[in-house]
Amino acid sequence: MVRSSKENRKEEILEAGLEVFAKRGYHNTTTAYVAEKAGISQPYVFRFFKTKEELFIAALDRAFERILLAFKNVDSSPEQLVDKMIEAYEELSELHPNEIALQVIGISVTEEAIQNATKKGLSNIQNYTLERFKDAGIEDVESEVTTFLARGILCNISFFLDLPELIAKSK
């Protein structure tokens, strides 16, 4: 059996962390649970992530990076930009549901480093969306971005709580 390279092993731990944090939350997750999910020993987790908090932040950063990448990959006319970005986010939510849960958890954790990572991730998405909407000539851009982000966060909460009725159906 060929052993995973160091980078592959780190990736496996990160993916295991995403899944375990999404299912158990931040405070109910231990590095032992992550190690078990990854099929490694707990001390091996610490070779790549010094603390549980560092692992959580890396997973949270991954979630925000994937959102930005999904939005950057949207190719659309200005008239369809908002709808196409919503579609991209919905597709991302289906492909990476653990990361959607992680965002909700990140908002609720009070540890300063995690709050800072959450603020940074949300600010990056807001700034990118603002520039993208401005470039598309969307009117009242600040209000439109706020509405867009608010709906996204509401979608995350709806998904996390398994409460789809929070979201109004399109006609």
TrEMBL record:
Family annotation (Gene3D superfamilies): Tetracycline Repressor, domain 2 (1.10.357.10)
Keywords linked to the UniProt accession: DNA-binding
Domain of life: Bacteria
UniProt keyword Phosphoprotein, yes or no: no
A Pfam family it matches: TetR_N
Record flagged with keyword DNA-binding: yes
Domain HTH tetR-type, residue spans: 7-67
Record feature DNA-binding region, as residue ranges: 30-49
UniProt xrefs under InterPro entries: DNA-bd_HTH_TetR-type_CS (IPR023772), Homeodomain-like_sf (IPR009057), HTH-type_TetR-like_transc_reg (IPR050109), HTH_TetR (IPR001647)
PANTHER family xrefs: HTH-TYPE TRANSCRIPTIONAL REGULATOR PKSA, HTH-TYPE TRANSCRIPTIONAL REGULATOR RUTR
Protein name, as recorded: TetR family transcriptional regulator
Organism: Oceanobacillus kimchii
